[in-house]
Amino acid sequence: MISFDLGPDITAELERVGDLGRRYLRPLGIEADRNRAPVPPDHPFFKLAWQMGIGQPLGAAEPRATGGAPRIGARRGVLLAEEMSYWDRGMSVAMPGLGLGGPPLASMGTPEQKEHFLKPFHDRERPHWAAFGMTEPGAGSDVAGIQTMAVRDGDHWVLNGAKTFISNSMRADWIVVWATVDKSLGRGGHRAFIVEHDTPGLEDLRYEHKMGLIAYESSSFTLRDCRVPSFHLLGGEAHYAGRAGFKGAMKSFNATRPAIAVMAIGIARAAYDSAREFARANYALERPIPRYQRYREKLARMARKIEVGRLLCWRAAYLADSEQPNEIEASMAKAFTPVIAQEAASLAVEILGDAGVVNEHYVEKLYRDVKAMDIVEGTGQIQRIVMARRLVGLPQ
Ligand SMILES: Cc1cc2nc3c(=O)[nH]c(=O)nc-3n(C[C@H](O)[C@H](O)[C@H](O)COP(=O)(O)OP(=O)(O)OC[C@H]3O[C@@H](n4cnc5c(N)ncnc54)[C@H](O)[C@@H]3O)c2cc1C
């Protein structure tokens, strides 16, 4: 059974996010799209949101349960992620906070590491970001094939390699960087390090220019003889017996995947609303000629698929909250929702006709924003492979 009742606090939080979305997230997302540049980290809005306690919605690994109360962190993350993404998916990732850097610290970090690396995030005066660096120019889906090398040197580790498309990495206080101690060990050689922003050897940080989702930065960088103290090895040496490093990465993906998946539902809902408003304003929906019947059919198709996709995300988040395996369900959600969202954005453009391809209408931006949802956090093909292997009982 899935419980949808998360209490009055969450309802109030969603209302605050909705208000922020209407006033800032959507306008800033549109502005960034027109400027073709991410919203800068010193933009006053980020400070305002940070001081209000509203940050990135990917707090999925956060337990948020005290005094024996049930865990609701993943479901809370899913609700906030859909709402923020509805207003602007690019802005939802641009928001300050731990983002994808949070779950590995939460699931693998020692108490001392958590205390040390979370400290900046308690400062409410200035917004802070963290980032998660796995992808490399030659290793995206093939996570096991990362080439960034980590070599122990006394009480330091020396990192050499390159990372690409790492969200918010240029503005992050620290980045969780995945490297290998021995390429021949495959996943068994993986280690995660926390690399702080001003570490010498963290170089060549540069923006990648995307077709959509422009409000947040996707950056690439090089690690050149980048020395980090041994304290920065996430979880410490003991954590990496067996395949624990790789499992740590996978576990953090399972925690964040339902929230990423539901962001596509936020985009789909925005496309649906835009198309419905346009149809209401421009066409008499009751006119009995086939063209108008087709609009209604398209709107109904969008509405029912949005419901189905949302339920998949909810189920995966519920399982995460109740500490049950959710790998198949999270993959199902992530494989399904970007397809729905692409269809919804495409149908919305169709409904608007020529108006749909000009940038005065939000659907034109949604059409460009939505494509990356199938790529981030494991592509659709990879999710289908993960599901298929699991369903026939093969190991990952
Ligand atoms: C906007 C954006 C934000 C991102 N943010 C981050 C981030 O914060 N941190 C981070 O580490 N990474 C991030 N990424 C990178 C993202 O995780 C990768 O792009 C993704 O894993 C796919 O890797 P790739 O782009 O190298 O594609 P590839 O792995 O090269 O895949 C190319 C195509 O081949 C298909 N394919 C690959 N292998 C198989 C297979 N075995 N069978 C069938 N088909 C296959 C894929 O589905 C895809 O269609 C981001 C990417 C984008 C676009």
Explain what you see:
The structure is a single chain. 48% of the residues lie in helices and 13% in strands. It contains ten helices and seven strands. The strands form two sheets. A four-stranded antiparallel sheet has the order 2-3-7-6, with no helix packed on it. A three-stranded mixed sheet has the order 1-4-5, covered by helices on one side. A hairpin with a 2-residue loop joins strand 2 and strand 3. The longest helix is centred in the middle third of the chain and has 39 residues, at 244-282. The radius of gyration is 21 Å and the shape is globular. Residues 63-67 have low confidence and may be disordered. The structure holds flavin-adenine dinucleotide.
Short description:
With 396 residues, the chain is of the alpha+beta class.
Q: Quick one: biggest sheet?
A: 4 strands, antiparallel
Q: What's the mean pLDDT score?
A: 89
- Round the Cα radius of gyration to an integer and report it: 21 Å
Shape: globular
In which order are the strands of the major sheet placed?
Answer: 2-3-7-6
Strand content: 5-15%
Helix and strand pattern: HHHHHEEEEEEEHHHHH
Count the beta strands: 7
Secondary-structure blueprint of this entry?
Layout: H1 8-35, H2 44-51, H3 73-94, H4 102-108, H5 111-118, E1 130-133, E2 149-153, E3 156-167, E4 174-180, E5 190-196, E6 202-207, E7 218-229, H6 244-282, H7 290-321, H8 327-352, H9 362-370, H10 380-391
Parallel strand pairs: 1-4
Antiparallel strand pairs: 2-3, 3-7, 4-5, 6-7
Helix pairs in contact: 1-3, 3-6, 3-7, 4-6, 6-7, 6-8, 6-9, 7-8, 8-9, 8-10
The structure holds flavin-adenine dinucleotide (FAD).
